[in-house]
Amino acid sequence: MLYRFFCLSVLSVLIAGCAEEAAKNTDQVDKTQTVYNWRMVTTWPKNFPGLGVAPETLATRVAKMSKGRLNIKVYGAGEVVPAMEVFEAVSQGSAQMGHGAAYYWKGKVPIAQFFTAIPFGLTAQEMNGWLLYGGGLDLWRELYARFNLVPIPGGNTGVQMAGWFNKEINSLEDIQGMKMRIPGLGGEVFDRAGGEPIQTPGGEIFTSLQTGVIDAAEWVGPYNDLAFGLHQVAKYYYYPGWQEPGPTLEVIVNKEAYDSLPEDLQEILTVASLASNLDMLAEYTARNNAALVELVEQHGVEVRRLPDDVIEEFKRLSLEVTEEIIDDDPLSQRIYKSYKAYYEGVVDFHEISEKAYINTRGN
Ligand code: CA
Questions:
Q1: Which domains does the chain have, with CATH numbers?
Q2: Which residues contact 110 (CB under 8 A, 6 or more apart)?
C-alpha cells in the first residue's frame, strides 16, 4: 500500500513535471511563430533626413532579420501622438516603441537629460563609451524601468551647431530677451544668460522663425538645417554647438511589449537600434560639410563663431544648471557620479589622443 502510494506520488510528480516542461516548450514554440505587429511613434517629421529615416531603417532591418516576425510601423510626429507625447504613449503602451531624445522629457524626468546631452559634456564617441562600457546604459535602464520603458541608444548627430540668428551676437547683451528654440539643459543655460528658451518640436521651427514667434533656433547641423530650409528665415549661423556636443537619441520600448518578445527578437531589436546609433553618426559625419558648403556658397549664409565671453558664460552656467538637476533621489546621484567620473577620465585621455591628434593635424 505504502509502495503503491509512493509510486503514484512519483508518477504524479513526473507527470506534473512533464506537463510543465511541455507547457514551456509549447510556449516557446508559440512565441517563435508569433507575428508581432508593433507601432513606433517618433518625435521627428516623417522621413526627415537622418533623424526620421533612422527609425524607418531600423524597422526594415528588424523585419528582415526576424523574417517578418516583428513588424514595426513607423509614425512621424503628430501622426498618432504629438512629438512631445511620445514618452507617455510608449510608457502607457498605446504604442510599443518610440524614437526621440531623452532630454525632451526633462519636465517629467530631469535627470534623463544626462542620456542625451549635457552642455560642454561628452562627445558622441565619448557618450557611446559611457553608455556601452562605462555603466551608463545600465543606469538609464534602471531609470526608465520606473516608467515601464526599456531604452536603447538609437542615434547620434555628433557635435551640433549653436544655431540660427537674425542678428549678430557680439556679446551677452545681444541675447537679452531673445526667444530661442533650444531644448534641454542648453535651454536652461540660455534662460539664465538672459534669453528666453522655447521648446519647439523640429517640424515647427521654420514657421516659428518665419512668423517671429522665435528670434533664433538651434536644430542640428548643416545637413539637417539645410533640409528644413532654416537659411531662408535666418542669416547668421553660429558655432560651436556647446549645448549638444554629441546627443544620443533613444529607442524606447514599452516594458511589457519588450518582455513579451522571445529572446531572439529582443536581441534583433537591440542590435538594430545600436546599428541606428552608429549609422546616424556616420551619415552626419559624411554629409555635414557638403551641406555647409551649399549653405555658404549657394545661399549666402554667414558662419560665425560665438564670442569667447559668451561661451565662457554659457560654460559657467552649464556647470550650475547641470548640478541643480541632481536631486535627493539616490539614482539621480548615481547617474551624476557615474557621468562625472567617466567624463574626468575620458577628458584626460582625449587631451593626449583625440584632441592632440586633431590639433596636430590642423587643417
Ligand atoms: Ca539640437
A1: 34-157+246-285 (3.40.190.170)
A2: 325, 327
Ligand 1 centroid to residue 256 C-alpha, Å: 31
Identity of residue 132: L
Element (H, E) at 149: strand 149-156
| 220 CA → ligand 1 middle, Å | 4
* Tens-place pLDDT, residues 303-317: 999 999 999 999 999
Q: Output the CA 190–ligand 1 centroid distance in Å.
A: 13
Decide: 168 and 268 in contact? Cβ < 8 Å.
no
- Paired strand residues for 181: 198, 217
Ligand 1 center to 169 CA (angstroms): 19
Query: What is the Å distance from ligand 1's center to 30 Cα?
Result: 44
Distance of CA 142 to the CA centre of its chain: 16
Q: Answer yes or no: are the C-beta atoms of 261 and 192 closer than 8 Å.
A: no
pTM: 0.89
Q: CB-based contacts of 25: which residues, under 8 Å, 6+ apart?
A: none
Residue 31 — pLDDT band, cuts 50, 70, 90? confident
**What do you get for the CA distance between the two ends of the chain, in Å?**
94
Q: How far is the CA of 217 from the centre of ligand 1 (A)?
A: 9
Pairing of strands 163-165, 236-239: antiparallel
